[in-house]
Amino acid sequence: MSPSRRPLAPLVALILAAASSGCGPREGAPPTERAADAERGPAPAREPVAPPAREAGDPSAEEGEAASPPVTDLELLVWTGDEDPCPEQARGDCHSQVEINGDGRLRLDAWGAPGSAFLEAGLSDDELRAVAAVVTAPGLLALLDQGKVCPEANATEAVQVRLRGVDHQNQTGYCNGDAVQAVRRALLDLVGAHFSGHHMISPPF
Questions:
Q1: 10 Å Cβ neighbour count for 159?
Q2: Residues 103-110: contacts with CB within 8 Å, 24+ apart?
Q3: What's the pLDDT at 2?
Q4: How confident is the model over 168-196, as a mean pLDDT?
């Protein structure tokens, strides 16, 4: 071997070592640079970047996070009407029902609409608070819990209120005390506002 030439064996050994470690030489780089790459080894892995924290109230928050507290303690109101005698304009459908759920859903099985499905609407928080104050009034709950709401009470009307897991219910047909009348007025107002052209009892009210 001529003394002016450098031996190739050490260079070949470095390249082979880099290939066996999973870090190949850069394509197209000169032999000296490829040897340096082999000596340096693989680049360190990047640290994962955490996603930005969600702000409170962000609707994209994952399921399982704490839900908003209920607007009121009212869990369910069911008002039922079974008018008797049934007037001709009812077309044979004198059964009606109004439901208010604790989440603000208002549902109506309309009077005089045979074969129709329940209509649904959503109450605002203010509407829900206002009607809940009426149907959870202590005076009304006491009436619903007693034997008869009034001496003439019958099954043409019934009211059920579920409050903090306890049901208060009774027949209120032909009863016209202030607490019962307040329930009717509140429900008539909501039905008129959300279901124009549909009725919970026979008109005129």
A1: 25
A2: 103/70, 104/71, 104/128, 106/190, 106/194, 108/191, 108/194, 108/195, 108/198, 108/200, 110/195, 110/198, 110/199, 110/200
A3: 46
A4: 97
